[in-house]
Amino acid sequence: MARRGSLIGKIFSKAQTRRNMIFLYVLFVIIPLLIADILIVSGVYRADKATQEHLLGNEANAVHYTFFNQIDQAAKLGNALYSSLYIDQFLNRHYNSNLEYYEAYKAFFDDTLLSMVEGQSGLKFNIYQGNKTITNGSEFRQIEQAYETDWYQYMHENELRRGLYFGEREPMDVNSRRAVYYFQRLNYYDRDSKNILLIEIDYSKCAEVLTNLNYENKAYICDDSRVLLSNEPYSNRSKGYKPSSELKNIAYKEDILVYDLELTINIEGSKNSNIFQRLKNSWYQVVLLGLMNILLPLFVSDLMHNEFENKIREQDMMVARKNAELLALHSQINPHFLFNALESIRMHSLLKEEIETSKMVEHLAKLQRQYTEWHDDIIEIDKEIEFVDAYLQLQKYRFGDRLSFEIDLEEDCKDFTIPKLTLVTFVENACVHGIESKTTPGWIFVRISTDDEIMTMEIEDTGGGMDEEEAATLLEKMRSASIDMLKEKTRVGVVNACVRLKMMTEDTVTFDLDSEYGTGTLIQIRIPLKYLKGSK
Fold first, then answer.
1. Which of 58, 78, 162, 194 could serve as a FRET partner for 329 with CA atoms 20 to 30 Å apart?
2. What's the rounded Cα separation, in Å, for the pair 231 and 221?
3. DSSP label at 474?
């Protein structure tokens, strides 16, 4: 009986030990694995969801920036006309005859170059005013013609000084029934003035630039009830606006305020955005997790047959390793997406691992800011030199050792003012037509100095140079530069810079050019000091 009891005790002890082993196995292996699985799966899901939201947020930001940039052109033109004393005097002048008005009208456009601005920007403007001596028609119309329009009623009902309005033209306009208006009261000099500026923004161009962003997801700019703009390539612009209530599968929304108009950017997401689809996108992590769930328990079970205490320690190590693997999986989910306009720099930096890319982006942003902000066409030379340096730094980044440059600016010249981006234009010409065409290293020198009553700007490069005929042709274009020549397709930037220099100096600026094929080119610009603001 004793032996039988001992045997039963051993059997009971083994069974108890087995139950304990199973309990400990479940407690320290199965449950931690399940917890780790849940953490990893939920982590992958949240990370993928965050990635998608980040991508959709980037798209919304790009849509916002692109749309605002189109509207901002009209706003800048509106601000310029709003504060223009010349325009105020033109609108309030009493004209004794239609002929007198016509001559003033013609001089108005010749002096302001507004017709050229309209042609280049795609903006159309009308001014509604109450001066009965102004002939009704063209860009200037009587204020009574605005009273029944939808944009005027919107402006009047909301008591707005300026704003943005999406309206509709008459159905007979087959090209685009939809219209975008920017309106502004012209009461800078007279608060009681009823003059109103109306700028029509090209709706088709706005839609086109959104489409050209080439995002996979559809984006919609909406007000309270309508879809105003979309990046859909085949949206029917000849019909009225679609109700925003018809939008489906909106995954991201962002509220924006554009010149007192509250809008919402809606981004359409994927229809298959459930957890299984997200895990499918991270299949390699799921495979790794499955292998861990199969192999790890077998490994731990084998160790538990050897020593209980070692198993406890092994469990602790496994939990620590699982946590480390979880952090590693999280760290792998780190998307890198940059704005389309910086794609080429991003690719270059990824390939060459260059830290200086951030500095190049800063230079590019500085140049871009100056290309888009035109509050004043006149700028101090030391500011212009900053743009020149930024441009040359970018070109240095591109050409590497093929390009070296040196800038020499006399202290007395820093406060002088010249038309914005004129000097940068000649430096750009030296890079594109000089250094770029030469395979051997080259230099660009920028020198600005004064001599008696003249300031001299020199731009010299040791690039490919020009033959005598080509040099003579370019010099003739510079000396005879005119607005009509801007219609040509070659050297437009140089001609533009020369035209503005001639206008600023009343055609007293002089240009000289010396070039030798295979050796380089020197351009010299001489300006009388009396035409430079900031000169003593």
1. 58
2. 9
3. H
Q: Give the pLDDT band (50/70/90) at residue 472.
A: very high
Q: Which two tokens stand for residue 194?
A: 């009823």
Q: How confident is the model at residue 176 (pLDDT cuts 50, 70, 90)?
A: low
Site of tokens 């003739």: 476
User: What's the first-to-final CA gap in the chain, in angstroms?
Assistant: 125
* 8 Å CB contact between 510 and 502: no
Total structural domains within the chain: 4
- Residue 227's domain spans which residues? 205-268
The total of other beta-carbon atoms located within 10 Å of residue 191's CB is 7
Nearest Cα neighbor of 219 from 251, 267, 264, 263 is 267
Question: Which percentage of the chain shows pLDDT scores above 70?
Answer: 68
CA distances, 480 to each of 109, 264, 363, 532 (Å):
22, 51, 33, 21
Instruction: Copy the structure tokens of residue 393.
Output: 């730094």
CA gap 184, 155 in Å, rounded = 9
Residue type present at position 370: Q
Helices (H) and strands (E) in the chain, counts: 16, 17
Same domain as 456, residue 320: no
> DSSP string covering 389-404, please?
HHHHHHHHHHHGGGEE
